[in-house]
Amino acid sequence: MADSNNSVSNDEILLSVRHLKKSYGDHEVLRDISFDVPRGKVFVLLGPSGSGKSTLIRCLNGLETIQGGTISFKGEPIDGREKTWRRLRTEIGMVFQSYDLFPNLTVAQNILLGPTKVQKRPKDEVERQMDGLLADVQLSEYRDAYPRELSGGQKQRIAIVRALTMNPELMLFDEVTASLDPEMVREVLELMLGLAEHHMTMIVVTHEMEFARRVADTVLFLENGVILERQSGHDFFTHPETDRAKAFLESMAPISDGE
Ligand SMILES: Nc1ncnc2c1ncn2[C@@H]1O[C@H](COP(=O)(O)OP(=O)(O)OP(=O)(O)O)[C@@H](O)[C@H]1O
Ligand SMILES: [Mg+2]
Predict the structure, then answer these.
(1) What residues contact 108, with CB distance under 8 A and at least 6 apart?
(2) 156 in ligand 1 pocket by Cβ < 6 Å?
(3) What is 35-85 written as a DSSP string?
(4) Is 210 within 8 Å of 182 (Cβ atoms)?
(5) Cβ-proximal residues to 164 (8 Å cutoff; 6+ apart), any chain
(6) What is the CA(55)–ligand 1 centre distance, in A?
(7) Which residues have CB under 8 Å from 255's CB, separation 6+?
(8) Is pTM, for the whole model, over 0.85?
(9) 178 Cα to the center of ligand 1, angstroms
(10) Which residues form the ABC transporter domain (predicted)?
(11) Domain limits of the chain?
(12) Which atom of ligand 1 is nearest to the CA of 58?
């Protein structure tokens, strides 16, 4: 895996969220959310359905307007203007549950679009980077294929490569394996584990608990739009503090054989 451009410096805070509020009409979906993500760390967002995980991730990429609080990136508060977010989206990559590749473009065209058109980088340089990343994920032979010719797992890995080719400093993942067949989940999770090993700063929503346990430096457990629990990955999975988190982990445990 090509190393990310994140040199791990001493506890630099890459992303800082303070008192973030998000509502849809009268419905407060996120209430007073505050946390700091140091560069090079992996934060995993866990919590029951409807607790606000996707909404939070979307706020961090400017896909939702916020009703209160601040989001700062590299020490600068983000002013919330679309122009600012357009610039920041080249530094904050995001991959969703549904692979959002353009169906009418080849894999290479999908990947090259952002770096050459938005970032205006030289095509040959971006192509070299792309070819290296495609080789890393063993998808070089699909360079000129169309998304319809790829499996779900392959599409999702291409979506991740596409985001990485922008050289993001922060990656946001929202249930990227949720719509994959089980045998394709592993290849995507392994790619993400590799990114974590290379100190990519990541915020990850996942229902894959074994993966979460391995990858999380910090777990934020959300319920009803608040951070109910904030612990190191190890502590959260070995001794969650709240009954709510304990019940959540039990509900996510593999089905036992009934003994
Ligand atoms: N566009 C929207 N308009 C109105 N309400 C919304 C919208 N998007 C989300 N919500 C509400 O916000 C709350 C949080 O939703 P969100 O999708 O963030 O939850 P989640 O934690 O990601 O859940 P899941 O695990 O099911 O993906 C829910 O009550 C949901 O109904
Ligand atoms: Mg969600």
Answers:
(1) 127, 130, 143, 144
(2) no
(3) EEEETT-EEEEE--TTSSHHHHHHHTTTSS--SEEEEEETTEE----HHHH
(4) no
(5) 2, 4, 93, 133, 171, 195
(6) 6
(7) none
(8) yes
(9) 16
(10) 15-249
(11) 103-167
(12) 18
Interval between CA 38 and ligand 2 midpoint (Å) = 23
Ligand 1, closest atom to CA 205? 22
Across the beta sheet with 226-232, what order do the strands follow?
92-95, 170-174, 201-205, 42-46, 218-223, 226-232
Residue nearest to atom 30 of ligand 1 (CA): 50
Start-to-end Cα distance in the chain: 43
Which two structure tokens, joined as six digits, stand for 144? Answer: 């000129």
Q: Which residue has the tokens 């509502």?
A: 23
Q: What is the pLDDT of residues 56-92, one digit of tens each?
A: 999 999 999 999 999 999 999 999 899 999 999 999 9
Q: How many residues does the chain have?
A: 259
Closest ligand to 33 CA? 1
